[in-house]
Design brief:
By secondary structure, the chain is α+β, with helices and mostly antiparallel strands. The chain is built from three helices and five strands. The chain has helices at residues 2-9, 16-40, 103-130; strands at 50-58, 61-69, 75-84, 89-93, 99-100. The protein has a five-stranded antiparallel beta sheet with strand order 1-2-3-4-5. α2 packs across α3. 10% of the residues are buried.
Length: 132
């Protein structure tokens, strides 16, 4: 009972809210990074020395990001934004102009989104429960 009274007072103490907000923001960022990582693993394990992410940025934007070190020790990166519109799916790679995706790429993206929707939320939920 004493703990209940104290917990009612704590949010009113100066600095306490900022700490709680910061913790929530950090937890949210961790979940976003995990979501992107899980999305990147949809097509199998990520090879050593590579980083791969796939995630939903907003209600109509999907992002595929991959980076690696090439044979010369240089970091290489591909960042693809897919924008879903009612009449087409457009993509932009490495901040270049947008172009309509091919039929084959559309099928691949659609399959990736289906896998993402099936697997990633369940994995995130398992992660959240395992960290409580």
């Amino acid at each position: 009972m004493a703990n209940t009274k104290i917990s009612r007072l704590l949010p009113k103490l100066p600095g306490r809210q900022a700490t709680d907000d910061q913790r929530r923001a950090e937890a949210y960022q961790r979940l976003l990074r995990l979501e992107a990582k899980l999305g990147g693993e949809l097509f199998g394990p990520v090879p050593a020395g590579r980083s791969r992410e796939f995630f939903c940025l907003d209600e109509r934007t999907w992002v595929w990001h991959e980076s690696w070190i090439d044979a010369y020790g240089n970091t290489q990166m591909i960042n693809t934004h897919y924008t879903v519109r009612p009449d087409a799916v457009l993509k932009s790679q490495n901040n270049q102009g947008y172009q309509k995706v091919s039929a084959d790429e559309f099928k691949t993206l659609r399959q990736a989104i289906k896998l993402y929707v099936q697997r990633v939320p369940a994995e995130l939920q398992r992660y959240q429960f395992s960290t409580i």
